[in-house]
Amino acid sequence: MSIWSRMSPPQQTAAQAVGVVFLMGSLAWASVPFYDWFCRVTGFGGATGVSDVAPDEVLDQTIRVRFDGGVARGMPWEFEPIERTMEVQIGATNLAYYRAHNPTDRPVAGTASYNVAPYQAGGFFVKIDCFCFEEQLLQPGETVEMPVSFYVDPEIVDDREGQYVHTITLSYQFTEIELPEGYQQAALTEAAASPIEIQ
Question: How many angstroms separate the CA atoms of 47 and 12, rounded?
C-alpha cells in the first residue's frame, strides 16, 4: 500500500496544496534566468547578441545605428553618446563611444541596462565588448569615455522581419549602485582617520 493511499482525504488535499506551492515557487525562481536566456537567444524584448569575434562575411549593404543614453532617477551622472548615429556596413566591426561624467563631490558607482529597438533586430545586433558587462565607478568630477564594440549580423538581410529594418537604436540607462565592498571599506577607514571638526 502506497503512502498516498494511506492518507486521509484532508491529508491528500494538504499534500497537493504543498506540491502546487512548491511547483509555483520553483517556476518563479527559474523564470528570470530562463527569460534572460530566451531573450538573448532570440533577441526578444530587445536583448542583444554577444560574441567574442566578428563574422567572416561583410556585406556591401549598410544600416543606420542610432545611440541613446540616459540615467535612472536618482543617478547623478551625466551620460550620453558621443556620436548619435552611424551608418555601418552589415557584418563589419564598429566602435562607438559614450561619455559619462560624475559632477558630484563623491564617488558614484553605476551599472548599465540596455536594449535594442526594434525588437526584431535585437538578435542581429551583436556586442563584442561593452562597458555594460562591468560595474563602473567614477570619482568626483571624473569624466570617462566608454566604448562599445559591435556588429550587425549579416543574417538580418535574410530574416523574414529583419530584412525590413533600416535603423537600429541601441539604448543604455545607468542606475546607481552601492560602491564596491573593498572601496567602501577604504572610504570608511579614511573617514575614521580624518579629524572631525567640532564647532
Answer: 44
